[in-house]
Write a structure and sequence with these properties.
Blueprint: H1 2-5, H2 17-31, H3 35-38, H4 55-74, H5 83-87, H6 99-103, H7 124-135, H8 138-143, E1 146-155, E2 162-169, E3 173-180, E4 183-190, E5 194-197, E6 207-209, H9 212-223, E7 235-239, E8 243-245, E9 248-256, E10 262-268, E11 274-281, E12 288-300, E13 303-313, E14 316-327
Antiparallel strand pairs: 1-2, 1-14, 2-3, 3-4, 4-5, 5-6, 7-9, 8-9, 9-10, 10-11, 11-12, 12-13, 13-14
């Protein structure tokens, strides 16, 4: 738990470390600041100094209590009001409407909010079946049982790309190895559990287990590498109103995980290919949103798969690019074993 790893935890007790770190990302996104902006200057590069108190941390604790009181008093405890409700990316909420926003172009579509089946839209199974046909057909997709790949990785603030390895095996096993500037980072989903092993400069603990709805989310990402059984991955499938992502029209399909989280899949209306996954995990202060954008589909063993994908979340962004993929190769169990 967070209070077992970090010092001076007063309000956000009783949540796992991965959820705590995601919550910090929510704060940063809501108020438009980075970690060191909210903590003492000396915290950069020193995990222990993040425990030091300052006026911003004290104010944040007060705001969490205020937010929870509003939700409890007015919304039956439902998480309706969050930090982002007022701040919207600024340290001080703007109480004056923006005329530029009023008369400027509308913001881009960013599907992800929960919805029900939209009138006049096809059933989700029709769109999912079209996706399977677009990547090569259900039979070919089912025949792809594993692959290894090499390529390049680029983090949000990295100066340049670094080498990447990926090992994947159906159903739902994935290991990525990034040879970064500060050391090797390994992210693993073994089919049931998931964790990240990273250098101490990058993570507060050497082995960070993923839990709850975040665990469900990374398991879904791993399962989608072998999408022949995509209809079984979620329940309560429904189709929303079509949206526009950049310059392409998309069909928006949504499902629910076993733990109650929502996952939204966006399929290119022209090609039928999956171009975006949006998922979120719960936290004490709001949804921890993660988005995966898929691109550069190429054929591997008769199956079209993305050779480039970008994962964006509230405190980072990672781009993965494959240059070489070997399909249906044996992968030792040790690749997915917990250190």
């Amino acid at each position: 738990m967070a209070e077992e790893v970090f010092k001076n935890i007063q309000v956000l007790k009783g949540i796992p470390v991965d959820e705590f770190m995601g919550t910090m990302g929510f704060f940063a996104s809501a108020v438009g600041l980075n970690c060191t902006d909210c903590h003492v200057d000396e915290s950069g590069g020193n995990w222990a100094r993040y425990a030091d108190d300052n006026a911003l941390k004290q104010r944040t604790r007060q705001m969490i209590v205020m937010m929870n009181t509003i939700n409890r008093t007015n919304f039956g405890g439902r998480q309706v009001v969050t930090c982002n409700t007022c701040h919207r990316g600024t340290p001080k909420p703007n109480v004056m409407p923006s005329l530029d926003a009023l008369y400027g172009p509308p913001p881009p579509d960013e599907p992800g909010d929960p919805f029900e089946q939209a009138p006049g839209q096809p059933p989700a199974e029709q769109i999912l079946d079209r996706y399977l046909a677009a990547i090569g057909g259900a039979a070919r997709a089912a025949a792809l049982r594993s692959f290894t790949g090499t390529g390049a990785y680029l983090g949000f603030d990295d100066p340049s790309k670094v080498p990447l390895e990926i090992y994947a095996r159906a159903p739902g096993q994935r290991a990525t190895v990034v040879h970064g500037f500060s050391g090797e980072t390994t992210s693993v989903v073994d089919g049931r559990n998931a964790w990240i092993a990273a250098p101490p400069t990058d993570r507060p603990v050497p082995l960070l287990p993923l839990t709850g709805q975040e665990l469900e989310g990374v398991r879904l990402e791993a399962e989608l590498l072998f999408p022949s059984r995509i209809e079984e991955l979620l329940t309560r499938w429904r189709v929303g109103v079509p949206a526009v992502l950049g310059d392409r029209d998309v069909q928006v399909v949504q499902g629910t995980t076993a733990g109650g989280a929502v996952a939204t899949l966006c399929f290119d209306a022209e090609t039928g290919l999956l171009v975006r996954l949006v998922r979120y995990a719960a936290s004490p202060i709001g949804r921890l949103v993660t988005r995966v954008d898929y691109d550069d589909y190429r054929e591997v063993a008769g199956v079209r798969m993305p050779f480039r994908w970008t994962v964006s979340w509230l405190s980072g962004r990672s781009t993965y690019e494959l240059t070489d993929v070997q399909p249906n190769v044996p992968i030792p169990d040790a690749r997915f074993a917990r250190p």
